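In this section we walk through a basic example: taking a raw amino acid sequence and producing a predicted 3D structure, encoded as discrete structure tokens. The instruction is simple. Fold the sequence below.
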Amino acid sequence: MQMIKCKNGHIYDADKLKSCPHCQGNVRNLEQEPNTYGQGQTDVPTEIAASRIYTNAQDRNMRVNVGVLVEISGRDVGRSFILYEGRNRIGRAGNMEVSLPGEDTVSRNGHAEILYEKGCFEIMPVKQDRQVLVNGREVQGVEVLADRDVITIGECMFSFVKFDDVYQGNIQF
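The resulting token sequence is shown next.
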């Protein structure tokens, strides 16, 4: 074993290696910083082709926003949750449309659901043992929601605001 020091101060075994493995045969002055500006970078196009622009929400696998729940009492007062066409699950899990992760009084995998179909909003508990109140009355089965109803789920209270009229062309500006 023949240990030697290269010009840059690295120690290596000259019997096994022909040149310093740290310098990879490149001897340079350690006092000078190497200029690596732009090396290893490639140009990324910033323009989007017209064929990739989506104008229809269904093309993007997105659902239309039709309402909102605003938390008026609970841990995150003022927080809002967008409601989409179709089924909106409410629970603590992160995959819920209305996710309430810190609310221990709300079931993890679905406490309640709000369903929007053909201009009508309905709310229902996922299971019979899960309490859901609308304007202070307990929901038994399915109940139709009206604009500005107050929904209580666990210890959270929400104000329900529907804005589906925008998509049906009924709003006049």
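Looking at the output, two observations stand out. The helical segments are 165-168. The chain has a mean pLDDT of 80. In the next section we compare this with other chains.
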